Amino acid sequence: MTSSRRNNEIECLRAIAVLGVAVHHMQGNLFKNSLPFLDAMFKRCDFWFGVDLFFAISGFVIARGLLPELTVFNGTLRQQARIIVAFWIRRAWRLLPSAWLWLGFTLLAVLAFNDSGAFGHVRPNLMATLAGMLNVANFRFASTIFHREYGASFVYWSLSLEEQFYLLLPLLVLCLRRRIDVFMAGLVVAQFSLIRMPPLMAFRTDALAWGVLLACMTRSATYIAIEPRYLLRLGPLRLIVPALLLAVLALLAAPFTAVWHTRIGLIAVLSATLVWIASYDRGYLFPRNGASRLLAWIGARSYAIYLIHIPTFFFMREIYDRLEIPSPATWLSAIPLCTFAVGLSVLLAELNYRYIEQPLRRRGIRIAEHFLNHQLRDEPQGSSTLMQLTTDMGPDRLSSPVTQD
């Protein structure tokens, strides 16, 4: 396993995931009218599987950092509770400021920049904003899907599911300890052949569970034994592996596979397979070149892009409406709108990453470290075990050892 804190291959997968989701969301969001060429493409392949790829990455990255702290650490229940609280502090400072900021901007646009109605009606957006802030957006999404308007912040359903995962995982580890892998395996098996009615899609945890199982495996000799070193011998041809896996994922996400009860389970398995190969960060998926560096750059900003791309799409639709520019009807006429929307999304994501995400993530790490050190001073007899843990962690160890997250 690489000692670098940033796993470039995981970041590349994040980039692919967010780009896939953004392409999936163009139809009906960026483009008011369906574009024939997108309709034809989406009938054969689709890219919403990027959400499940995100889930597999999150399950792996978070569990890879958290499991050693809670299962290896031999402290009291009170001491382990402090580790959990410190984890929650880091996650809150990492995720909530950006999420609430763009919820606020979206709601402001609904109220003040919505002549075309692109952002939807006020009341559904007020409810959607509240659901996003309280991290119950997946419950609202399940209750509104195909029935009534959700609101412009509909992407928050997946963020809420992840937040619920971050809240519950440490408690499950605390209760189950080293049997957390059995629980996650049961979660995978229970859902694999489940008939996924639309509301249940807002609660799919297959890929998250696979990510945790993969994190458990990294602590065993098996993980070293199954390292796919042979991929390096393929040279540039090893790109066939991710290309094939991603192609199968896109096919599984197409409408014609909706009748397969196992398709979400298969998407989760393939997503976890990509994360497994990327977890070694040895170039097994992506050669070290300019393209992979660009993907890693996008991946580092994927959270911001995910939050920003939908309000940006609606913003550009509003601009087009005010300028009385016809909605694109062909791929050629769609190029300018796509260019402006993508460029604005990337610009805003970079600003968010630089001035919101990174400073507040570092602040959350400092607050969590201060919390642990403060509690350490209050421990009777110095609590040498907790002191050793916080010394080993330090400010850098308080984030994931696999990748910045």
TrEMBL record:
It comes from the Bacteria. InterPro entries: Acyl_transf_3_dom (IPR002656), Acyltransferase_3 (IPR050879). Keywords: Acyltransferase, Membrane, Transferase, Transmembrane, Transmembrane helix. The chain crosses the membrane at residues 47-67, 95-113, 154-175, 238-258, 264-282, 294-314, 334-353. One of its GO terms (molecular function) is acyltransferase activity. Pfam families: Acyl_transf_3. Residues 8-349 form the Acyltransferase domain. Residues 383-405 are annotated as: Disordered. This is Acyltransferase. It comes from Dyella flava.
